[in-house]
Amino acid sequence: MDPIEQLLAERACRRLLLDLVRSLDLDEPASVAELFTEDGTWTWPEGDRRITGRAALRAHFDSRPADRHTRSLMSSVHVEVVSPDTATATSYFTTFRVEHDRTAAVGAGPRNDPRRSEPPAPPATEPDIRIGHYEDTLRRTPDGTWLLAARTLFLPSGGPAPLL
Fold first, then answer.
1. 113-122: per-residue pLDDT in tens?
2. pLDDT tens digits, residue range 48-88?
3. Within a 10 A sphere around the Cβ of 16, how many other Cβ atoms?
4. According to the UniProt record, where is the region Disordered (predicted)?
5. C-alpha distance from residue 90 to each of 115, 131, 136, 137, 152 (Å)
6. Which bin fits 26, alpha (ψ -120 to 50), beta or left (φ > 0)?
7. Which CATH number fits the domain 3-160, given the four candidates 3.10.450.50, 2.40.40.20, 3.90.180.10, 3.30.420.40?
8. CA 29 – CA 21 distance, rounded (Å)
9. CB-based contact 132:158 (threshold 8 Å)
């Protein structure tokens, strides 16, 4: 593979992974399914959970509670192009999640528009902080677009954080 093509593929894959997290953080979870192949999977080894297929992924993300807000930090995104049409990636994350977050209105997505007339409810629960990593397989479609074929989430640490 030509070095420039490899760099472009790595860049496209990295952007895809960041777009996925951004969609979740901006309260647009329904758009996440479009970043997967038709037969894409999202797996949580703990609890042996797996969602297979774009339609099932769409239903899963559409069921996300409207009052759940997240902000994620991604780091060490390592993409390895293994062939012209396949790549793997590992990325590390810390996600802060709250239900009914009053502070999420700044820079938020459509479900918590700061222009709405009523203020958001106070947090119903303490913030939840999750730390883990993703292992992904990405595939290039015939039109040249990179999509997620498989995502596995590893979550060694997560739970409520005390309000200060």
1. 555 555 555 5
2. 889 999 999 999 988 888 788 888 999 999 999 999 999 99
3. 20
4. 103-133
5. 38, 14, 6, 9, 10
6. alpha
7. 3.10.450.50
8. 9
9. yes
Domain boundaries, the chain: 3-160
Q: In 10 A of CB 68, how many CB atoms? A: 18
| Token duo for residue 31 | 């758009």
- Edge-first strand order for the sheet with 36-44 is 49-52, 36-44, 146-160, 128-140, 86-99, 68-83
3-state secondary structure the chain: CCHHHHHHHHHHHHHHHHHHHHHHHCCCHHHHHHHEEEEEEEEECCCCEEEECHHHHHHHHHCCCCCEEEEEEEEEEEEEEEECCEEEEEEEEEEEEEECCHHHHCCCCHHHCCCCCCCCCCCCCCCEEEEEEEEEEEEECCCCCEEEEEEEEEEEEEEECCCC
Torsion, Cα 9 10 11 13, to 10 degrees, reads: 80
